[in-house]
Amino acid sequence: MPNMLSLLEEVASPTIGLGCMNLSHGYGAPVPEAEGVRALQAAFEMGYRHFDTATLYGATANESLVGKALEGRRDQLLLASKCGMAIDPALGRKVIDGRPETLRRQCEASLQRLRTDRLDLYYLHRMDRQVPIEESVGALGRLVEEGKLRAVGLSEVSAETLRRAHAEYPVAAVQSEYSLWTRNPEIALLAACRELSTTLVAFSPLGRGFLADAVPDPARLEESDMRRGMPRFSAEHYPHNQRLLTDFTALAEALSMTPGQLALAWVTAQGADIVPIPGTRDIAHMRENLAAETRYLDDASLARLNAMMTPDQVRGGRYSEAQQADIDTEEFA
């Protein structure tokens, strides 16, 4: 059974992958298809090999975009997608469904949209609290045995859930938000991943743009931007959080890095078994992020960073109450 790191080695992928969600979902209006295709093809040409998408993103539009943009390059990619959470067209809203028959149906539809006969990594996007995790993961394991998947992943789960799932079928990767200002995996998940040789895939390693100093005023974000509903970006908490950036951006300048590159260098410094997947819709930012692959931190700089934006310093939860109800991760008090 291949693990995440061996999948990356097969395609000579840099450690840093590309989260494709931003092109279609979550951060305002989706980009026009032609622009998205150009961005993804440019990402491949500049060296990205690990591309991450999901059934949910853009109500399946993101998978279709990735499939169109990267067709003909399949054997040169680590292609990852997710199931178990989708937009129900009849209801017009997100639905979490981890039943085996649903996961199989979504997998087969993902393969069609991505124009491939197999996915390298397929995550259960959210745990369905109505379905034992063993049933959901067992269903994904059967899809591996049929050759439709190469490895199974989980997203936004606790250490306990990971252990239960892994006992049913090997879990190659767990995707969780991880950055300098979101250190929840350090509570228990990261240790469980290392115990089980499961790779931690860090999404939002730039703090949803915060650590790249790209959100001067959340009130100016598009109405459909998910950050407008996140407590950390609220009018109540954001001014305080923004002040935490002062020392961070000063250190980035002293190290001749952009703030975004410093944020990525911090994540990669946490271990070779941690794979960040920053997302952006901007080609120049894709290039900037990938350049962080060769930026390293000395012990003194790493110690300074570790003392910044600790959980007791950051104000506001990372999710709204409704979003928090859908996840299974450990939370700081």
Distance between the termini: 37 Å
Give the strand order, joined by hyphens, for the main sheet: 1-2-3-6-7-8-9-10
The total number of structural domains is: 1
Low-confidence stretches: none
CATH homologous superfamily?
A: NADP-dependent oxidoreductase domain
Q: What would you say the CATH architecture is?
A: Alpha-Beta Barrel
Largest sheet: 8 strands, parallel
The mean pLDDT is 97
> SSE order, as H and E?
HEHEHEEEHEHEHEHEHHHEHHH
Rg (C-alpha, Å): 19 Å
The helical percent reads: 25-40%
GO molecular function, one term: oxidoreductase activity
Keywords: Oxidoreductase
Region (Disordered): 314-333
Domain NADP-dependent oxidoreductase: 16-307
